[in-house]
Amino acid sequence: MKIDQVFEHDISEKLAASIQALLMDSFSEIYPTDRIYFKQLPHFRLLAFNHDYQLIGHVGLDYRIMNLNGETIRVLGLIDLCVSKNVRSQGIASALLLEIEKLSVTRNIDFILLFADNMNLYLRNGYKPVKNKIKWLKIDNEKIITNGIGFEKIDGIMIKEVGKMDWSEGDLDFLGYLY
């Protein structure tokens, strides 16, 4: 398996078609059929390929500052982590998470953050669930328009501390959209 880092603006039509097929295979009930992002383009992606250079794993990554209880934090957000159905349970998702952690600890990143419906994979890889009240920019996924500001507790937030800061409960302002 080979993992490549690809910036969003460098994705070819052929690669976009492979990403779209993998996203639809993994999230067909909720994912838009006409694009390779859900609400917003990620900054870059990690893509896992098999020995035949077929796409078998994907995760989008979004780097931004957020506000945690009045403190500025640097966050790398994970978006749409998925693995091809025919190669699941072979450690590919964990390999992508390890690659993200390696990338994060050598850069100016305080936390890795994600949303998970099923937390098992992330718990096994050192992530922890947090319960913060969050503020975010609501985006209508169908119309791709701003739909207001949300401010409430949302289940499924997980983080991994990769910098020198400790996470704290309280208010978290995403300063943008949810992943």
From TrEMBL:
Xref: PROSITE patterns: GNAT
Pfam families assigned: Acetyltransf_9
InterPro entries for this protein: Acyl_CoA_acyltransferase, GNAT_dom
Positions of the N-acetyltransferase domain: 1-148
Name of the molecule in the record: N-acetyltransferase domain-containing protein
Taxonomic lineage: Bacteria, Bacillati, Bacillota, Bacilli, Bacillales
